[in-house]
Specification:
alpha/beta, 223 residues, Rossmann fold, binds adenosine-5'-triphosphate
Length: 223
């Protein structure tokens, strides 16, 4: 597995949280009046003890949850008043996600997992597959693309998850524990890929318990 460049965002966007608060159902607030700005070309680590709300915050930043108060601004535009459909469209256009433990769809082939965000966005199927294959190739995933996620290693799954997150060349890349449970070689590979993406103009936000990964980021925000 060699260190290789991994593309660049199609465009640059800023991301900001303004006084964001959130609670699940009627429980205690998990996030209270939290604000931060994320600029293109930067890689930020969100750190803190287990259960503090790091993943929740990532879902709020990625428009998968709606704040109870406050707002998330994507490229300066408040997202709070957008309809669900427009939020979904903005999410598909602006964000790539690497979920905790890769979270691949076990029922679909590897290439279908990778191309899914591009197809959801309405991209041409053949072009999406070409981009997906190029990413898998760049990330050294040398597997039959019709294989299913149940038949691969954790390190391969994480590189496939990264390919899926990058297939739309998103301006903003959000990653939840992208190096959890990986061997040192794959960890280094993933960290370099994330850093390269930030250097190429992406906003990269990473939730992590890894002190080593946080140290490789441009800044660390502790929750
Ligand atoms: N869907 C949910 N419904 C209700 N409570 C939830 C839900 N998801 C998470 N929580 C609770 O919200 C709190 C914050 O969870 P979250 O996963 O955001 O924390 P975290 O800092 O990412 O934790 P970890 O480092 O262990 O992954 C926890 O107490 C968790 O139990």
């Amino acid at each position: 597995m060699s260190r290789v460049p991994n593309g660049a965002p199609k465009s640059c966007m800023t991301l900001a949280a303004r006084d964001v608060s959130f609670a699940y159902q009627r429980r205690e607030p998990i996030v209270s009046q939290w604000s931060a700005e994320f600029v293109p070309g930067s890689m930020t680590a969100l750190t803190g003890p287990s259960g503090r709300g790091k993943s929740t915050l990532l879902y709020l930043l990625g428009l998968m949850l709606r704040p109870a108060s406050g707002d998330v601004l994507v490229d300066g535009e408040p997202s709070g008043r957008l309809s669900d459909a427009r939020r979904a469209a903005l999410r598909a256009r602006a964000f790539g996600f690497v979920f905790q433990d890769a979270a691949l769809d076990q029922t679909r082939t590897l290439i279908d997992n990778v191309t899914e965000p591009a197809l959801y966005r309405g991209d041409d199927r053949i072009r999406a597959a070409q981009r997906g294959r190029a990413l898998l190739d760049r990330f050294g995933v040398d597997l039959p693309s019709d294989r299913k996620p149940g038949q691969i290693s954790g390190g391969q799954a994480q590189r496939i998850a990264l390919s899926r997150a990058l297939v739309t060349e998103p301006p903003i890349l959000l990653a939840d524990e992208p190096t959890g449970n990986l061997d040192p070689v794959t960890t280094e590979f993933v960290v370099c890929a994330l850093r390269d993406y930030a250097r190429a103009g992406g906003v990269v936000v990473v939730v992590t318990h890894s002190i080593a990964l946080a140290a490789r980021c441009d800044r660390e925000l502790q929750l």
